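Incident log, entry 3
Record: RNA helicase (441 residues)
Problem: checksum mismatch between cached and fresh output.
Input:
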Amino acid sequence: MSTARTENPVILGLPNQNGQLRGSVKPAGAPGGGGGGPQQQLNQMKGTINNGNSQPAPTTNAVIKPGDDWKKNLKLPPKDMRMKTSDVTATKGNEFEDYCLKRELLMGIFEMGWEKPSPIQSSLFPALVIVPTRELALQVSQICIQVSKHMGGVKVMATTGGTNLRDDIMRLDETVHVVIATPGRILDLIKKGVAKVGQVQMIVLDEADKLLSQDFVVMMEEILGFLPKQRQILLYSATFPLSVQKFMVHFKPYEINLMEELTLKGVTQYYAYVTERQKVHCLNTLFSRLQINQSIIFCNSSQRVELLAKKISQLGYSCFYIHAKMRQEHRNRVFHDFRNGLCRNLVCTDLFTRGIDIQAVNVVINFDFPKLGETYLHRIGRSGRFGHLGLAINLITYDDRFNLKGIEEQLGTEIKPIPGIIDKSLYVAEYHSESGEEVKP
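Fresh output:
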């Protein structure tokens, strides 16, 4: 069965735009149930997304004394046996212990299931963290909370637009060690004198290409102006547009570029040539033939997201949807529930492309093909996370033909015509090579 399908679908949520459309709900794991497949695979990586104002419950590990084998007391998740591509396995042979990190921090890292530093981590291991979207802020703050849970008293806070400003002001009245923020909100707090950044030693710009684009660059320059002169700026970006280059000319940073190795490995790309009227039928066919664990389906506008989500529900498949015009509490709930495997399919705009890491997603479908190579790269990167294999399928109309050719040339990749039967070893974990060798498309 490729995805959850039910008889007599019931549509919920369109009037209040909560983003969750369901067929007739069955218990998770039951035949036709909406949460069985992805939920089972998510058990080893499941985490609750909160608003960043609380730490997890204290662990019950015994006190570790000098000379003890502290690793034996760790609560490690099940080992991830899925195959990984060489862009994340080709490390320098370093271990996390090689970087003079506190033992309590190492404990949090290992209990996340991270065994060795990735190539990018081992290249620049050495705060204020700035991210472009609210969902990414919640994700990063949750990871910070989990990694620091053994460090005792580390306060992590996420602050984004669309949430209660008074709550943020109250939280900042006490010491906060790590702040994850969207640009507009942190700038507002700084100007109000609530967020005191005069002693911030490090600022991280995650998805720097977006943060230095026309949407945010003026705010970012203003934020940096409030920081002390002796501070470190870290830029992380999968693409290197002119906006980032201009910023680097001004600040003259040290550059580490792994892009030749990290672009599109592990993601097999196909296109299906269709008319606009054939798209929904083609999508229905894909649902019936593919072995989808979780899928993300991209549209080019908020209106088309809601229309498509309604169509998918009418076809009998449960789906969620998310876009920037929804109320923040509904966006948070959709993100939380989809990440925890409560639904197989998510329809969204490009809001959901930036850095969102949901390990169970193995299929990305561009219902509407993007115009820019940068957008395409970030979309299909939602599958094949951290070296695992994934599938990207693009529905191409006559008007998209030049964009398809241009993106292939820009990214130096090949998007092939979709075959009648797609080899499951290209995107389904249980069909990967048992030897652990990389499967090449």
